[in-house]
Structure formats: C-alpha cells, structure tokens
Design goal:
This protein is mainly alpha-helical and about 280 residues long. The protein is about 50% helix and about 10% strand. The site of iron/sulfur cluster (SF4) has 13 residues, from α12 and α13.
Length: about 280
C-alpha cells in the first residue's frame, strides 16, 4: 500500500487518449493504494489567469468523466487543489528551498517558452509551476506519482526539492517517484496525436451518432488504397483501438481479413464500433 498522488488540469470533458494514458491507471491503482487525485485548478491559472470563466465548468465536466470511468470516491480521495489552503502554504515554503537555477533548467519550461509565442509566459507563477506541483505531492507525503513521460523532469525536480528540504529542515517528506503509465499510443481520427485542439479526438461521452461519424472518417493504413489491396494493421491508425478494446477473436479476424483483403476498412470500422461503445 503506497501513497499515490496525481493531478490533472481542468480541461473539460476527456477523450479516450486521456483514459488510456492516465485515467485507467488511476482506476486500477485506487484498489490497493491510498490515492489522492486532484483537479489542479491553480495550475490552470498559470495559463488562464486572464480569463478564468471556463475553469468551473471544465472542472465539473472532467470530474464527471473521472467518476463515469470508474474512479470511486469510496476508494480514493478526489478533490480540488484550490480547496486545500495548506497546499498554497506549502508551495510558499517550498519556494524558499528551490534554487532558481533548478527551475531555469527545467526542460518543460524552456520548451514551452520557446514554443508558445502567442501568450506571455514570463511570469513568476508559470516559472514556479513545478514547485506548485511539488506541493501537491509532498502535502500528502506522496510516494508514487502516476504520470506520463513528459512529466518526469517535474517529478525529478520534486525529488530534489524534497531532498533539499529534508536535509535542511529534517526528514519530513518521502522522495516521490514517477510511476510511468504504460501508455499505448492513441492517435486521433486523422492520425496525429489525439488532442481536443486538433479536433481529432473521440471523447469519453461521445454520443453514438457522432462516434459513428468519427470512426467512419478515421484514416487507416495509408497503403491500403483500394478495397482489394491487402492492408497492414501495424501501419493502421485504427488497429490499436481494436487491440485495446476488442476481443481476441475480433482482433484475429481483423488481422486475418485485413492482410488478405478479405475485409474492407468499412467492415473493420463496423466491428470496432460496438467495442468503442462498450
Ligand atoms: N503538471 C501535471 C500535468 O500537466 C499536472 C499535475 C499537477 C500533477 N500537480 C500534479 C501531476 C501532481 C501529478 C502530481 O499533467
Ligand atoms: Fe486498418 Fe482495419 Fe483497414 Fe486493416 S482493415 S487497414 S486494420 S481499418
């Protein structure tokens, strides 16, 4: 039994990429661990401080998807970051223990400052984002932090901050460790990374009609141009969904049918729909 802490920014309703990349893992972990899952609305402010109107609705939509997917408030603690004042107090204290150089070296910070040109990110809140995240974890003496690989530098920083704090102020905090989510690569309907902002996402609450339309429009093996061309599921953007959601029998039927041109992509998509619906 470990103490587990993780958080998501309130982005509104979630898509199946979020589910397989994070949420499913949280749902599994809640059964055998002490879990804290938080909506990090203070973190949302780092980019949305000028217009906060969407944050409450996005929070509700996201938590509704957490619950619908199987996060169970009887098994884990679900809460709003800004609802626990001690979080901000610890953030303040940890700030004293965080050398500026550590934050300057943070690869996410450097990358986002380069890539995001349309917003001014030169503010203290954005710079100190990883300290805020560290406070989330250390407040609950989190030992394991389920996250994607992109978050590993942040967790490394959290470890360093915990270590420095412990050395100076006494052994208080465990050094948290990233628990890497085995995240299958889920592409969007157009083959790019699934993202709401690309308009290629399949959301968890997708209505049946929309779902059908989206699946119909999905790109498949680019070399399978005609119905009579054999395809290769490994080159196909749709097949990973069969692997995650369909029965072994269906998967075998697809591999067999696809590679021999026995089935067309339209058939394959029809077979995927009930799996996705379920
Ligand atoms: N920074 C994380 C992200 O963007 C979200 C986050 C905030 C988090 N606090 C956390 C993740 C604490 C794990 C633990 O995805
Ligand atoms: Fe992809 Fe299925 Fe078409 Fe094969 S038959 S290319 S697996 S959609």
């Amino acid at each position: 039994m470990k103490t587990i802490v993780s958080g998501m920014r309130p982005t509104g309703s979630l898509h199946i990429g979020h589910y397989f990349g994070a949420l499913k893992n949280w749902i599994d972990l809640q059964h055998h661990n002490q879990c804290y899952f938080t909506v990090v609305d203070w973190h949302a402010l780092t980019s949305e401080f000028e217009d906060t109107r969407n944050i409450p609705a996005h929070t509700r939509e996201m938590v509704a998807d957490w619950l619908a997917s199987g996060l169970d408030p009887n098994l884990c603690t679900i809460f709003l970051q800004s609802g626990v004042d001690a979080q901000s107090v610890l953030y303040l204290i940890l700030g004293m223990f965080t050398p500026i150089g550590w934050l300057e070296r943070n690869p996410t910070y450097k990358e986002q400052k380069e890539q995001i040109q349309h917003r001014d990110l030169s503010n203290l809140g954005f710079f100190a984002y990883p300290v805020l995240q560290t406070a989330d974890i250390l407040l609950y003496k989190g030992e394991k932090v389920p996250v994607g690989v992109d978050q590993v530098p942040h967790i490394e920083l959290s470890r360093e901050i915990a270590r420095r704090f412990n050395r100076i102020a006494g052994e208080i905090f465990p050094e948290p460790e990233a628990l890497l989510t085995p995240s299958p690569k889920i592409s969007g309907t157009d083959g790019r990374k699934m993202s709401k902002s690309y308009g290629n996402a399949i959301s968890l609450g997708e209505p049946s009609q929309e779902l059908e339309k989206k699946v119909k429009a999905m790109v498949t093996d680019p070399n399978r141009i005609r119905r009579s061309d054999p395809g290769d599921p490994k080159q196909c953007n749709l097949f990973p969904l069969h692997e995650l959601l369909s029965s072994k029998e269906t998967q075998e039927e697809v591999i067999q049918g696809c590679t021999t041109a026995g089935i067309g992509c339209v058939d394959c998509k029809k077979m995927l729909l009930p799996s996705l619906e379920a």
